[in-house]
Amino acid sequence: MSQIHVRGLPGDVAPFVLLPGDPNRARHIAQTYLDGAREYTSHRQLLGFTGTYWGVPVSVQTTGMGCPSAAIVAEELARLGARTLIRVGTLGGATPSVAPGDLVIATAAVPNDGTTRQLLGGAPYAPAASFEVNEAAVQAARAQGAPHHVGLIMTEDAFYASTPEHARLWAGRGVLGFEMEASAIFLVAAQRGLRAACLTACSNDIGDPQLVPDDVLAAGVDRMVRVALEAIATLAAREQGERTGPG
């Protein structure tokens, strides 16, 4: 049965799914990094593609901007057979230690958004990434020599509400940067028994209205996607080994 928003059918979506917010980035990832990629949905411009990376089936599914859209997409992907969700997007840095183009691998997301609050009925909760996915991502980042940081991020709703003072306050509490989808993806994944992670490339310092130069950000996005795909390859190999290993 097709889903309401992600108009794919069972079998269209791979167990491993990359989640960019931007449909243009979804198409770029599919065309640049995957073999034999085909589009399975374009409904509402939530573009979705499935191909392979080193023989491993991988989907790339647009989430749109913000937690409401991302939560819908994550929920429907779970119904379509996804098992590992990895957000690949951009992040506003909270501290100068996160340089333009750097990779940030989130351990958890402070849920400063309305979607997780509604899903939880206001209960306190700490949306967190899956350790084994993060472990594979950190290994891939180290192997590729990609500048990276591992730690806490914050998910927010109001893009233009963040100020340098707000950023430095939360940097003092360990937050590396701010984005708009991770907490909802982590929560829905936990509710549906999926693994989830969030990899982002730093696009700007909070308070700076200008993004980093296009070439710097493009290089950071390239490193981010390659790290995510190598992490998927590692996870798939481990799973295959578990299936074929001694009983």
From TrEMBL:
Transmembrane segments: none annotated. It comes from the Bacteria. It is an enzyme of class 2 (transferase). PROSITE patterns: PNP_UDP_1 (PS01232). Residues 16-232 form the Nucleoside phosphorylase domain. Its EC number is 2.4.2.3. It catalyses: uridine + phosphate = alpha-D-ribose 1-phosphate + uracil. InterPro entries: Nucleoside_phosphorylase_CS, Nucleoside_phosphorylase_d, Nucleoside_phosphorylase_sf. One of its GO terms (biological process) is nucleoside catabolic process. Keywords: Glycosyltransferase, Transferase. Belongs to the PNP/UDP phosphorylase family. This is Uridine phosphorylase. It comes from Deinococcus arcticus.
